[in-house]
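Forwarding the complex inputs:
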Amino acid sequence: MSNLVSVRELCLSFAGRRVLEDVSLDLEAGQILTLIGPNGAGKTSLVRVILGLQKPDSGTLRFSHRLRIGYMPQKLHIDTTLPLTVAGFLALADRDSRRGRSVLERVEIAHLVDQPVTSLSGGETQRVLLARALLRQPELLVLDEPVQGVDITGQEALYRLIARIRNETGCAILMVSHDLHLVMAATDRVICLNRHVCCHGTPDVVSIDPAYTELFGVRTALYTHHHDHEHGLHGKVTPCSESTHGEHHHG
Amino acid sequence: MADFLILALLAGLGVAIVSGPLGAFVVWRRLAYFGDTLAHSALLGIAAGLWLQVAPGPMVIVVCLLIALLLLALGRQQSLASDTLLGILSHSSLALGLVAMSLIPGARVNLEALLFGDLLAVTAAETLAIWLVSGLVLSLVYWLWTPLLAITVHEDLARVEGVRVGLVKTVQMLLLALVIAIGMKVVGVLLITSLLVIPAATARRFATRPEQMAILGSIAGSVAVCLGIAASWWWDTPMGPTIVLASGLLFIAALTRRQRS
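Prediction (whole assembly, two chains):
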């Protein structure tokens, strides 16, 4: 199958600090590829290079043709002084309100069309961003942490929705996540990134790869559900902070 | 009504109408301090005009634009917090303008008119210039409305969708410089941002869409100009500050209304 996107030996530094080192990847048409890695691993930087928002220091980036790219950014900060409805937000990408409504239906939030964007919950905001990305009828959908600020059940629903969008439209999807087991069912391939590519392959292969387990701990990959707490030495439940997540052990 | 009052009213309205949409962007993008800096640098433009013996109006636009581009470039460095940077530039350029003007031999400058405006002294030619610039800015804003709004909402997203962000931002700075150049005559460099910010903030209480906020801002500004000119005529107070005060009072009156989301 032909590669939609080919990245070869990409290097990028900020103020002398290496963010990406010899990163190569291929994305085939219709494929879902997930970038996973700890905070500061360069996932977002890599995405920004692919989107053309950031120039790499070296390396090549090749597209099979001029792709229509839909981009879903990590966050949306809109000043509360800006009175903007969901419909108005979508109109920035496409004036046709019928198309706006139809993408909202596809992401199952048609009822929010006249809501101000600043009043939306985390999950609703993510769906609005996804809708805007879909408006462009993309051949490549780039999703930077699509489930950020979404609760666990909402995350699973969102990943199911993303997988369904791929099945319906056949677009390729590149997404960023820092959690493998939730994304496992929704992705074809995984690249584990920690400035360089640690390992890559199908999710079940990556989850038992030594490079992966070194980065995320042995056991997380075996769990099929998510823990929002960890256990202390005596079995006491302690809250699990973001930074230690994925490395926790049951005592 | 006296001719000079009619001219004052026309000039004031010309600025107020264009301040609605521009002021909305200043509020949404949190550019109030930025606008202050540009306004202060307008004084430097006047000084440069006197020095080079060219018309001060175009010089103000040139200097404002240069400062705006300098700020855009410095903003990318991000080594200093932007409000610190603006604080440095804003007051340095004001001080530099004042010092430069005092150094020009033989120049007689009405400083108070520059700082607080001198609407009663506005000529027919200046009023015409105000309306021409105002019309130009309004048509550009209308034409570029969607990209301007898109970069306000999310710059990266707009860029991926094909908006030429750098160009649009530069045009926005140019528009702001133009409005400051014409607004100087009305309320002076020290009060000009109030003309941008206050009507927009008043309009926010009533608006449910961005376009609505821009238009309501123009209306709020125009009402403030009318009330301000009338009050200043009646009580014999300085016209520029009275217009700003009227604008402020309108905002306070609007506060009694619950904000629509």
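The interface with chain A takes residues 27-30, 146, 149-150, 152-154, 156-161, 200-201, 204, 207-210, 212-213, 260-261 of chain B (CB under 8 Å).
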